[in-house]
Design goal:
The chain is mainly alpha-helical and 156 residues long. The protein is built from 6 helices and no strands. Helix 4 (77-109) runs antiparallel to helix 6 (128-155). It is a multi-pass membrane protein.
Length: 156
């Protein structure tokens, strides 16, 4: 998981830096040159989609995602652990059903469509959905592994 985290964080950092450069280029071409680039808006739109679909699993794996745990914190440690396990199974089910299965369906449905400005196949853009879902599944399985491993350590 450390290797995956390093790769994903590097990809995300590169994407943010590239988006800043492309956004600055858009401003320069629009207001300084008076001839806005037709590619930059589409690049930024799709880069933001990919950034979101790759960033969410990364944040989830790093336990930096948004969570409301006021109620769970009031539980006993056993209840907190059971709730965490339940949440991980819900995340697994939703990631598999919605992101992976649904994402593959959406990606296949986009077959034959091309993007307006860059003329790329739309499958390239929609592929981030099942990829993000697969990453969510990996991180969720890793979290479950640690939850069950830590239980065995407590019992021993």
């Amino acid at each position: 998981m450390k290797v995956l985290n390093k790769i994903l964080s590097s990809v995300l950092a590169f994407m943010v830096a590239a988006m800043v450069v492309v956004c600055c280029w858009q401003v320069i071409t629009r207001f300084v040159l008076g001839n806005p680039s037709k590619y930059t808006e589409e690049i930024l739109r799709f880069a933001l989609i990919w950034l979101t679909m790759l960033g969410a699993p990364y944040a989830y794996g790093a336990k930096q995602h948004l969570a409301i745990d006021l109620l769970v914190k009031s539980f006993e440690p056993t209840g907190q652990r059971r709730t965490q396990i339940f949440v991980e199974f819900v995340v697994l089910a939703l990631s598999a059903a919605v992101f992976v299965v649904g994402g593959i369906a959406v990606t296949m449905n986009a077959h034959g469509q091309i993007s307006a400005a860059m003329k790329l196949p739309m499958e390239c853009y929609y592929a981030c959905i099942p990829i993000g879902g697969a990453l969510m599944i990996l991180y969720s399985l890793n979290n479950l592994y640690h939850l069950f491993r830590d239980k065995d350590k407590e019992v021993a």
